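Supplementary notes for students who missed Thursday's class. We covered one full example, reproduced here. Read the sequence, then the structure, then the short commentary at the end.
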Amino acid sequence: MQFLKARLREDEKAALAVKPGKSQDLKTLQARVLADVEAKHQLVAWVEENFGTALKADADARGLPALKKGAVHLIAAVPEFFRSPVIERLVWAYADHPDYDPEWGGDRVRARERAR
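Structure (token representation):
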């Protein structure tokens, strides 16, 4: 987790350092990178936290329809064990980083990159 959080901080810092000026493409790319970092932060929080109780309470407080509320309750009950592969796959994007541990997997990703 620490490795991934550090990479996300680096990605965010790099995106914020870009000065897109009048280039709409750079503005769009910068916004996309920042949104991607935020989405990954939320996935990390989802894996790390025991958020089930708060998520269920929020669903109840928002008065969601029964089907949506049921889905929220079901998702909230998924144990961390089943959520952790999400982080493993997010880490694979950084397989070329010097601090990356090959035991984290991602061999298919690296093989695909070598084939390009």
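Commentary. The mean pLDDT is 83. The first helix runs from residue 2 to 17. If anything here is unclear, bring it to office hours.
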